[in-house]
Amino acid sequence: MPTYSSGSSDSPRSPSSPRSPRSRSPQRARALLLALSATAVAATLATAPAPAAAHADATPRSSAVPAAPTLTWRPCAPSTGPAELECATLPVPLDHADPDGPQISLAVTRLRSERPEARRGTLLLIPGGPGGSGVRQLAQKGAALRKEMAGAYDMVSFDPRGVGGSTTASCALEPDDRHLVTLRSWPGPDGDIAENAARSRRIADACGRHGGAVLRSLSTANEVRDIDRFRQALGERKLSAWAVSYGSYVGAVYAQKYPQHTDRWLLDSTGDPDPDRVERGWLANIAVGAEDRFPDFARWAADPARDDEGLRLAQRAAEMRPLILALAAKLDREPKESTTEGVPLTGNRLRQALQNALYGDSLFPELARLVRAAQDPAAKPVLPAVLAGPLSDQDAAVTMAVICNDVRWPGAVSTYRRAVAEDRVRHPLTAGMPVNVTPCAFWKDQPAEKPTRITAEGPSNILMVQSLRDPNTPYAGALKMRTALGDRARLVTADHGGHGLYLANGSPCADRAATTFLTEGRRPHEDISCAD
């Protein structure tokens, strides 16, 4: 059993080398992955008046400290979440360097503690993405999280700028440019990227013409500043947080910029924080993530238990990889009519369907049915909903804008052509997509500031939870975040596959560690591994 200690959120500790998870060879760690998943943030309005807290940004954009905004809470529109959910609108500066200038609106939500006598603070759920809705995530996760927290927190979340009920931007993209398989730059059947480059340039041009100041403001740095405005509006000196996927990077940046305002900080499914690459690196690592997660699906699809469901695709797990690759190649040559008019099942749609299904075991049956239908000459495949039509214009805009505004991308198409050719050989399941050209190569505006470097300077109040086999962010990337944080963090590793861990992919050990940390403030003395 792991031993636990109380993590202090008030006194910084000296940086030290991270403790490596036990019982895992470097080869195994390199071969296994971890991923992100969009989630929501929890926090609530305190009864005390909001203080004019000092702005702790290490590189302040303005010397002025604006007065904390006031939140007017109201019942949320009917949803599938807890009936007690409340909603409000938070004004934030379009440009934090000009706090008295134009304002935009963020949709925020809260779920109060049902046991005020047990309440110890406010828990913020930071959504993933970019493009994830925290309002939706709190509605989805609120009941389960409330049960785990046993009244310890009010819980709050928000839609980041550009998302959902907050102020959004538009690139006025044509529907064909908003499909997931076109926003994700899947190369042609022979690896050609000429069409990808033309589409990426077209999207960047459209965003440059139509996006305006709001699109230019969509960045990790501004989301972090918006979170601190939310904290001030809540009247809280400190926040606790559960941050998932891309949100875990946002959470790490907040903890770097505003360490004195962090209480208990849970980072779930974390990527490599390399400030020279950030989103570029995360996208490239999808290739490794897919290769490492695929054996889980292969074993599932070859299990005799699938016979009763009609979903057994092979006699042996080893047969699944060549089966999928051959089927995708056939669909490259001969796209198959689907039940969605005008949207055929192509090789790249099958590859994207595979990538989506690797997020969780519960998605395997849908992928198996798609494969079955693709193999049957008489069947029309039913496409997963996310592949059957285009994304909304606002979702496409925020997804592109954040990754392009955060960091510079190479501009030469030849760089991507070489990378795709190499990656297709190393990682055929993803066919070169993760390293292909994107609209960021032609983006009209350079990043307004450099990405934040995550360091070991700050309070030791962070717990990381990670799956070993995640299709989106490799475990090796999580270890780099762990190294960067030094003695500020402890890492709980679960021998699981899928995207997102806490209250998601079935690790009781990791769930207990996360709940214990958030409710009691106790972490393992050292990094631990969970086998359940």
Please render the helix and strand layout as text.
Layout lengths: L3 E3 L19 H6 L1 E2 L39 E2 L10 E8 L9 E9 L9 E6 L7 H16 L3 E6 L21 H4 L10 H17 L1 H5 L3 H15 L4 E6 L1 H12 L4 E7 L10 H24 L17 H14 L13 H11 L6 H12 L9 H4 L4 H14 L6 H14 L35 E8 L3 E2 H11 L3 E9 L10 H13 L1 E3 L3 E3 L2
Parallel strand pairs: 6-7, 6-8, 8-9, 9-10, 10-12, 12-14
Antiparallel strand pairs: 1-13, 2-11, 3-4, 4-5, 5-7
Helix pairs in contact: 6-7, 9-10, 10-11
Low-pLDDT segments: 7-63
Q: What is the succession of H and E elements?
A: EHEEEEEHEHHHHEHEHHHHHHHEEHEHEE
Q: Radius of gyration, Cα only, in angstroms?
A: 23 Å
Q: Determine the number of helices (DSSP H or I, runs of at least 4 residues).
A: 16
Strand line-up of the largest beta sheet: 3-4-5-7-6-8-9-10-12-14
The residue-averaged pLDDT reads: 89
Key features?
532 residues; alpha/beta; two-stranded antiparallel ribbon
Structure description:
The protein is an alpha/beta fold and 532 residues long. Helix content is 36%, strand content 14%. The strands form 3 sheets. The protein has a 10-stranded mixed β-sheet, sandwiched between helices. Strands 1-13 form a two-stranded antiparallel ribbon. Strands 2-11 form a two-stranded antiparallel ribbon. The longest helix has 24 residues, at 279-302. The two termini are 13 Å apart.
